[in-house]
Write a structure and sequence with these properties.
Length: about 375
């Protein structure tokens, strides 16, 4: 007799498709489709709502105009009472708040929480209350750095699980994409330095621009171009003014949101990550897959994937000169790149695939359901 599938409700409180966190949910649904019955409860008409509906996933939704919107948590309570899910998998802090509220109106099943950033958990009673809520049986941490941050705030480690998110290694499409050099009227031999990140403070795109200033204006490297891809946000207005301030308007292109931006990674000579805070960004796994060398800040879980000088180059946060020198080092020593790429691909296949992520997550689901 076939084993009965686990009936899971995934809850998302985000309104835009911000990248890695939402890719994690999509990959989880894909990888565990044979093991679980998935339902998603999310913000009505949000990017994630539209995308998952387009993929044929079972989506329920409610409006969310503020983090404590009763329309959301009351509908969630009614849904859980009616559908009798086995587990609730919560994918962000806002969703956790709403699930805790819903549990006061209906008896929700056990919670699994994914913590996808290395931002500290605030030492406030209301914040600690929800993270220590009895229904939270496991917190899945995207990196060891994230696990340590959670452990420091919660003063316990027994229900913290390290599960790297990973990327899918099937269905990649690096072809039929616009030629960036042609699109931007660049020479074919132009050295392209890319960055794929949404415009939020944690990505520190000012350091991205300052690295360009260092290489182009101080090091006098002219046959290079910087390309930044990602959703615009609150910091955008300030960021877009920076190239003009440094005389770099002809050397930096901000392309905004580009669908399936990862497919452009093979066109980058270097993927430059300038973040000041990270869990462990999905774009590193994708760079490993496409063989694009990574120069990055050494924040959050990034050093868990990149060993400095072994399969990439790391610098301290905000140190645009060091980031620039690392790019120059790769430009002057291209013979090192194949080995960086080889080691990165081996790490990807060993530790960072979505299949491995899903297998470990499924094991946690079963552990919680068995009461272990």
């Amino acid at each position: 007799m076939a084993e009965q599938k686990i009936k899971i409700l995934h809850i998302s409180g985000v309104k835009t498709w911000s990248g890695g966190g939402e890719n994690h949910l999509e990959n989880l649904l894909y990888e565990l489709r044979a093991e679980a019955v998935h339902n998603i409860f999310c913000v009505r008409d949000s990017s994630i709502h539209q995308r998952l509906k387009d993929l044929g996933e079972t989506c329920f939704s409610a409006p969310l105009t503020h983090k404590m919107d009763p329309r959301f948590f009351l509908k969630l309570a009614v849904l859980c009472k009616k559908r009798k899910f086995d587990l609730v998998h919560i994918h962000d802090s806002t969703a956790l708040t709403l699930a805790v509220m819903a549990d006061h109106f209906a008896e929700l099943p056990p919670f699994i929480l994914s913590k996808k950033t290395s931002f500290p958990i605030r030492n406030r009673p209301q914040t600690l209350y929800k993270y220590k809520y009895p229904k939270v049986k496991k917190i899945l941490c995207v990196s060891e750095a994230t696990r340590k941050v959670a452990a420091a705030a919660l003063k316990k480690t027994c229900h913290l699980e390290l599960i790297y998110h990973g990327t899918r290694i099937d269905g990649k499409k690096a072809s039929n994409n616009p030629d960036l050099r042609k699109k931007l009227n660049l020479p074919k031999d132009c050295f392209l330095i890319g960055n794929i990140a949404n415009h939020i403070d944690a990505k520190d795109l000012e350091t991205f621009v300052r690295t360009a200033d260092f290489l182009i204006n101080e090091k006098n490297l002219k046959n290079i171009h910087f390309v930044q891809i990602g959703n615009y946000g609150k910091p955008t207005e300030k960021i877009l003014k920076l190239p003009g301030r440094f005389g770099l308007d002809q050397h930096i292109s901000f392309l905004g949101y580009v669908p399936n931006a990862e497919y452009l990674l093979p066109q980058f000579n270097v993927n430059l990550i300038t973040s000041e805070n990270e869990g462990l960004p999905q774009v590193i796994y994708e760079s490993f897959y496409y063989g694009t060398p990574v120069v990055s800040t050494n924040v959050g879980g990034i050093p868990e994937a990149i060993e400095n000088g072994v399969n990439g180059l790391l610098s301290d946060v905000y140190d645009y000169k060091s980031l620039g020198e690392n790019i120059v080092f790769l430009m002057e020593n291209p013979q090192l790149i194949p080995n960086f790429v080889k080691i990165s691909k081996e790490k990807l296949l060993r530790d960072f695939t979505s299949t491995k992520m899903a297998q470990k997550t499924l094991a946690v689901y079963k552990e919680v359901l068995n009461g272990d």
